[in-house]
Amino acid sequence: MGKQTKVLVTGAGGFIGSHLVKRLKKEGCWVRGVDLKYPEFAETEADDFIIGDLRDPEICRYITDIRFDEVYQLAADMGGAGFVFTGENDADIMHNSAMINLNMLEACYKRNIKRIFYSSSACMYPEYNQMDPENPKCSEDSAYPAAPDSEYGWEKLFSERLYLAYNRNYGMEVRIARYHNIFGPEGTWQGGREKAPAALCRKVAEAEDGGFIEVWGDGKQTRSFLYIDECLEGTIRLMRSDFTGPVNIGSEEMVTINQLAKMIIEISGKNLSVKNVPGPLGVRGRNSDNRLIEEKLGWKPSMPLKKGLEITYAWVKEQVEKSKKA
Q: pTM here?
């Protein structure tokens, strides 16, 4: 029998992290999860789960007390447009996430843990390439000259460079993916940090038949959204490949936000209209460019958006009904 793979997942109480723990457990890995909180919507499946603040270097040293085969660094201070683009959380976003990455890399280096994955974001792409909602440019080589549209994006870019520097100077085997709008069940769906798919699923689930839901902006801004299972598949394939990245992990099925809302309305079976209202937006257009991931990994995401939305809407609707009864 081969040696069991030991894996550390930081940010394991969050949406992507908690799903990643489940996936790694299915593969037979021994998994330690770390976060400020336990997963909100399901028991963690980690073998060991430590509540800890990764802004504290001592905590980072404490959780790396064994030599892990793989570390997935997903911990960050983040949220959807209502959190990232108001400007009110900029200092926290930059300080907290940068501290986490500085501390985790140093702790892994000192423990001689070689392979560490970093989840960057499509938010690091330059705003000037994302002004035309019909033709956004998000190929990996378009990152420079840098001009992200938010401090969240600047921190992601800084941290990418930090990981690559440890790769060059200390021989660490870093892997970097730029995630594009990951969604699915068991993610934040209310409270201000939720992303567009969950927010719209909630609005539709709460709306009375014959009414309307509000969508921020003119609704013509474009995005692509990737279902969680595809994100995990791409992440693990990248981690176990010999390609450092950065590489996009996202869908190429681009929709306007109004189209996204209408898809969810259709899934719900309700008769609702869309009312566009002012709100925080981010860039005009963004879509994953999957040429590089297909070339390097021989794989790219293929699940239709509608299929992922059907699963997600059913889950959000259940949460809304539960909260009404509470």
A: 0.95
